[in-house]
Prior knowledge:
Distance between the termini: 96 Å
Helix content: 40-55%
Low-confidence stretches: 1-30, 93-109, 866-916, 1135-1149
Radius of gyration: 39 Å
Shape: elongated
Strand content: 5-15%
Number of helices: 41
Amino acid sequence: MIFQDCKIRYQQRKNINTFGIIIVLKQKLMPTKFFTNQENNSLLKKFEGVFANIESIRHFDALVGYFRASGYFKVRPFLDKIPKIRILVGINVDQLTKKYHDKGQLYIENPEETKADFLNETIKNIQEADYDEATEKGILQFIDDLVSGKIELRAHPKKKIHAKVYIFRPANFNEYAPCEVITGSSNLTDSGLGTNPESNYEFNVSLREYEDVKFATDEFERLWAESVPILQAEAERIKNSSYIRDNFTPFELYIKMLIEYFGKRVDYDPYNIDLLLPSKYIRLKYQSDAANQGYAILMKHNGFILADVVGLGKTIVACMIIKKFIYENGTHTKVLVVVPPAIEDGWRRTVKDFELENHFVFITNGSLHKINDRNNYSYPNPEDIDLIVVDESHKFRNDSTEMYQALEEICKIPRKRPAENGDTRKKVILISATPLNNRPKDIENQLYLFQDRRNSTLESIHNLQEYFKPIHKQYDQLAKDLSELNPKDTQYIQKREKTLKKLKNLFQKLRDDVVEPLVIRRTRNDIESNKEYLEDLKAQGIKFPKVDDPVALNYTLDEDLSELFFDTVSLIAGIDEFGNETDGLGYYRYRAIEFLAKAEDRKLYGNVESISDRLSAIMKTLLVKRLESSFYAFTQSLSRFQKAIDNMLAMFEENRIFIAPDLDINGLLEEGLSYDEIESKINDKGGNNKAFSKDDFDKTFLDHLKQDKEKVDELIERWSKVRKDPKLIEFTDKIQHEFFKPNQNISGKLVVFSESKETTQQLASKLAEITPKKVLTVCAENRKQMEDIIRDNFDANLEEDKWQNDYDIIVTTEVLAEGINLHRSNVVVNYDVPWNSTRLMQRIGRVNRIGSRADKIFVYNFYPSAHGDAQIHLVNNALRKLQAFHTAFGEDNKVFSILEEKGEGALFGNKIQKEESEILKYLNELRDFRKKHPKIYDQMAKIPNKARCGRKISEGRQLTLFETETGEINYPLQDTSLTYLKSENHPGIFCLITPEMNIIELNFLQAVQLFKASESEKAIVLHALHHKQTQAALAYFKSEKNQENIQTVSRRNLSPAENKAITNLNAIVKLAPTEQKQNALKRALDIIRKGTYASKGLPQSINDFFTAHQAMLQEPDKFIDQLFLTVLDRYNFSSFSEQESPLEQPNQRGIINPQIVITESFS
Length: 1163
């Protein structure tokens, strides 16, 4: 029985298999009615076959869930013989039902809403279609077919149509006439038709039986009767609401470009944030605007630089932002303000006015380590701080200082209490009117206080470190070129102008890419060119005084003094007036470690040659600066140098030479300490503080010292015979006849600056002799005690009934160059011009402030001699720094005059013009247009992407660009196109495409000058290359070149310290005893890859720990615990929110959804 059952089953299986073979054979012999989009057997091919082989077809009906105009374009070439095409489309009933449900209403079919939904979908489809000439012709043909009635469109208002049915019928449809119906999964779209290899996989069936076609036709007619016609009138709306509209004007596209570029920046409410101001403060719209913008940047980028020029009220703007942040973040908010000691009291007064004292902690620049010291209970821990404000942030431009590293650690350690959205990043406000002091590195290092080096929040620059590398290289070369120029060269001025032009171009790039999105910077010119701001200032009786061009005060040296001056410069600088090396001072007093005979002794002090070079250069620089400050300051410094040499020689005579970096040996000797007492202090200090014998030094060292002594002694002897100082004489004359002219100096008060404390003492003494005016002398030692006196006598913002007139003249060092108001005076005298041009701007800013009663500010500069200038490269250095500053930030006053005037003599050169913040100028233009024409503005804002127009240009017009490497390049504009492209994860680029299809990427300021158009300009027909050029720009935008900012960081981009730290952590991450510690180690690795901390911070701390505890690696658990206790715990890795961790969410790559915003073609 069992065997019989098995036999039956075998026979059944055999029969089945035989039947399967028959089916397969039948498939081979008979063509199937089914087809897919595979192997060139697409729906589009079926359409082509039907229309080509059944010539009697005169009716084409389509019932589809989705209709794309692009799909129609592809089918349209086969439909010329078809007099009437009917297409019935479903609408998104689910979406409409939800829309009404959300309103608590029942969806009832609405013909107008059905029509609108279909039209919007069609317009969207046209906007998303490929941008090429063939597609565009298809779109226009589709609209023409709608207008002519060749195509009739209807949308069904209530049925969720998912069917896809295509009916082909002859004019006389009957059971004997050829006909066909195709149904399946393919919609009338590009993908459904199978027009390219990436199309959807579709499954369709073709039926040619009369009954099948008749059934489909009847069902179609029933649905057609229920549907809403899309009338011919709607065709024009489709055209006018999409990019194929042919009447865009150049002016419309110019405004549209500005709207797209500035985005939300055009929307601001200057009154909202005003409510945060104390009642006694003046409400100024330009300050409110800055506060609104600053808050938005702060929340988007975790920080920003507030860099308004001096005197516009940056502290007030900062406090408005802080108060808004506290309201949004919560009453627990802690704010750390990092300030130089000189301006702390001013901050405390303002914070008290804003009633924010309970939220604030103040700390001076040199005390930041106290925040990081968790055993110091006088200050909060870093993670307790939510917002950090750094005033005079340019003091943190050097990332190698301990002060910088301490601040970076405070800024980057996550806050303990996340924001409502889970954000644990601290927010940072940097305040400085002069954030760019010398080099691009200055602003780069400040940005790293709130940006990660290789993971920035800037859409267009993901890796700031890589972005800055070529900029530093080019800047260093240009600085070198500038410093090596010879004033005696007949081509000197032309060469310098060319170099300065390259420098300006370099900083324009920096401004456009980095400064514009992360820095708020307004000059007085910016504010006065804004009508709203200006009207607001006038309404409140506030005016900005104009700063007259600086007046040059030159002093003349007689023949004997000239010879002594020239000899002195040659001796102390080691060169003569022609730049030739001379037998100058060797400054051997400061090179002792270089002459230690034993290698082990030299090793105590590191690179002794480099250190000796630096020390001697510092002394050389000091003497030159003192010489140009005043003869008195110079002779005092020279005498101290002589004493230092004598002390060293005396130590050789005693055979006890002290080298003590941590002690002031000269100071101890001056105090009268014995050699034994000094050696005892050296022994207490230990380290590399040591006493040597003369045998420990190279035999030539003593000879060098004696040679320096002879030169210095002779120089002091010659200077001791000088009985007059021409600069002091000139100053005396101007005090009596110039500085107090009633038509200029309206208040009778004067501010005099000098870099040298000894010079200020000499000036105060001289003033006491020649004028009855009362003189206040201020230096670092007495500034704190004098603060109230200074306010009472020189601060115009003090209530007028509290004004005092105890002093008329204030003579001060740089200690009053920042953080103080001196604007009851409107006259500034720079007795010496500081080498750091930033300080010069700061000085002028003390009197050029809001609240000044004067109409003009007068600046007098005593210029250094031409000879001294040539030796120390003062002019070139100052111009280089000023040019960099002017270009990157737009300074609104000249500070050097003669140094900036072209053609004033072979020594001086390029004129640096006043410069507005040009980008802000265009933003103000857009805001002004919106205010005057709100309806037109709204219409232009709705102009669709891909909008374009042709523009007529004058013959020979060209675009001139300046490349730092190659110089000027001219691009003829004839037959070019200018395209603006954006994407979801990229702010956009501007491309000029040449007839040869070369892509020139432009910055905003270059592009806007081409886009700018008058309201009356008419568009012309697009030239023949338009589509091809636009496609080339889109391909460039999507190319790898523009995705470089969205790539992961490779190890070669990291510093040696970072690479070593990563290697060290990778070695132990899997050995971590707990999952929590393993995750913390992974976060530490990620933080290092991002460049959150400088190499000398976290990475170096990790490496130092590994080096010091190598032996402990034998016990991994103990090693890792100690690593956390010693290093990692203070960085609080456990507080990083999951949303920040790339372990959970890797960075997106590639340009997402690229869009052509606008194109203009020039003919």
